[in-house]
Amino acid sequence: MKKLILFGSIFLIYSCNNVKSVVKNTKYNQANLFAVNSNDVDKIKILNFGTFHMGETNDANKTEFDENDNKNKLEINEIAKKLALFQPTVIIVEMPPEYDIKLQAEYQSYLLNPKMKFKNPSEIELLAYELGRISGVKRIYGIDHKMSYNYNIGAEMINSIDSLWHNKYYKNPMKYYPEIDIDQKNLNLLEKLKITNNNLYLDFMIEVNAEMLSHVGSDNAFEGADEATKYYQRNMRMYSNLNRLNLTSADRVFILMGASHTAYLRDFISRSPKYKMVNTFSYLK
Predict the structure, then answer these.
(1) Is residue 90 part of a domain?
(2) What is the pLDDT of residues 124-153, one digit of tens each?
(3) Residue 51 forms part of a structural domain
(4) Is residue 267 in some structural domain?
(5) For residues 228 and 32, what is the distance between their CA atoms, to the nearest angstrom?
(6) In the predicted structure, residue 162 carries a pLDDT above the cut 60
(7) Residue 156 sits in which domain range?
(8) Are 66 and 279 spatial neighbours (Cβ–Cβ below 8 Å)?
(9) Beta strands per DSSP E along the chain
(10) 43 with 276: CB under 8 angstroms?
(11) What is the domain count for the chain?
């Protein structure tokens, strides 16, 4: 017991002496997030790419996008060419693992016939398949894990924690993020995706989808926080599905997700000694 206490004391002293170092090396520092060091050679390289959902989706928020428009398809193909410079060997998409056999079969059909038609193509068919075709990727997997949670709970109950701030925030959330408050209707697809993959936007996705719910609850309970925890749990389970895959340091993994999942995966991956996240903007030019 004395040894454990001594170790704890030493660790506490070490931590206190290195507070400034930790602050300087926060994950929000873009340079440090993607800095390369000698230990990275054995890590699995990941390009963690966020998008809006391009086809039909069950998500509450969907960006208006005509997935069958030829101009949009051409823009997607150009973006796929840019991302192909990453030279992925594996592609990960927002699909539950139980559909992997069907996903792989459809992907193989696309490789044989890139002009095949999809009734309601999503970012998977439009971007992931084309990126895989250009890059010669043979493996594609889904890591999604479906879990429902009530993100609208603050409007459905008597909120005893901080209803004024909660309601004020959701009335116009973009007001609090002037750096990313851009009229996306005037932007092309590449410009939209640059915003979607910006760290500020990814932070916003976590706040607006989950952490703001910590301001919701009754007098003696934590209803909002508990709902937010479900969303965190879903994303952690998706990360767990990623860790189930047989990946090696020779692999280069492209992950395509809705931006809120990208935001959580960014945090998980950036702390992991197993993975090395590459800078999306090195390819999204």
Answers:
(1) yes
(2) 999 999 999 999 999 999 999 999 999 999
(3) yes
(4) yes
(5) 29
(6) yes
(7) 42-285
(8) no
(9) 44-51, 90-93, 139-142, 252-258, 275-277
(10) yes
(11) 1
